[in-house]
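Consider a concrete sample entry:
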Amino acid sequence: MKEARREFLGVEEMNGPLMVVRGVPGVGYDELVEIRAQDGSLRHGKVLEVSHEAILVQIFEGSTGINPKQTRVRFFGKPLEIPLSESMLGRVFNGVGKPIDGMGEVVPEVERNVNGEPLNPVVRAYPREYIQTGISAIDLMNTLIRGQKLPIFSAAGLPHNLLAAQIAAQAKLPGEEAGNFVVVFAAMGIKYDDASFFIQRFEESGAKGNVILFLNLASDPPIERIITPRVALTVAEYLAYEKGKHVLVVMTDMTNYCEALREIANARGEVPARKGFPGYMYSDLATLYERAGRVKGRQGSITQVPILTMPNDDITHPVPDLTGYITEGQIVLSRELHAKGIYPPIDILPSLSRLMKDSIGKGYTRDDHPHLFMQLYASYARVKEVRSIAFIVGEEELSPIDKAYLKFGEVFEREFIGQSNFEDRSMEQSLAKAWEILSLLPRSELTSMKPEEIETYYKPPAEENSQERLMEEDRAL
């Protein structure tokens, strides 16, 4: 660390992670601060507010055990920076970028401000090409595109951590660029056993050497939670725009991040907005999410998969609500599917990837992908309708065609949406699985498919002809 710009003895006031220092001229906003307690221990922080009378400082490690009158404060003429190097791959860091894997400090190639630099929209390139996650419900139905930000909306008790680890372990680029792909994984406010699970999962899958892991535990100070995604995204920007890599950033749990933001805002005495969150939470989240994308003239890209838990399963809660405004779609997890024992419990109907339409089909995945996706979506929506009718009149009163939809829905949920948390399906396997299940329906129901696509891929079961006759008789009646 560079030599301190100035040092002062004594602190005016302490309030949780906040510290007020008076009589310090020439200090700038967001400036890095070093706090030396009376026992010699060092802590760090940053300047939050500057006025003629006082300076407000956030302490990253918390203020427990600090004697205000005997504390020395050093101000540096720069914001918080972290050392960056490709050697960070395969390493584990805490929430502020300090190594915790026992492998020593990072030898930096360069240092960067963790707040990043906003991208001018003029230099942004439109996201293209997909990232294969190995999960059929994402790859086929909600395709993740390079440069996209696609959040996962979960809830308490649902396996979002398991899904996050699976995506990070299995994600890859198809074709020749497969070796130019890395994952930055940022976990915020998680329990110790979850942190151990993430490390173990990446080691078992063999993906650890391609992952940079940042872990902020629930026991860590809330201010560290604010820094963690910024540190992770700074590393991602370095790898993407200076090293030419395609980077997937997985961030979990953004609700913990927002609650830390609320806690600090309340400690500062700010006027709260919806549900006590600060009024600037939208712009704060945007400064994180908008760091994803592709830049014209640069080879690399940053793709984000932020994961958040919806309090009380409420999708209108401020955190998912504001996230939905900023990002390009959402993947929604279903408590109903989870109760059926289906993993991953991805609810197809409310889920959406807004950028997939221009990056699937001929030249990207396969010619029939766009029509197959729409046909599966429409057929599954019909399943929901038929189940509602069956609940009222009973399944035995349904027509043969409605019974076929019930069978399709059951198999679709169990065999297409459902898969093992270690099962890594290629795009070709997902497409084949989709056609296999879609073939449970009669040809006449495949209204979104082209005749040549049906001729090529449709393989009905042996009893399909007899089913067709029954359904034709049903229509005639």
Summary: DSSP finds 13 helices and 21 strands in the chain. The chain has three domains: 6-78, 82-358, 369-476. The longest strand covers residues 181-190. The radius of gyration is 26 Å.
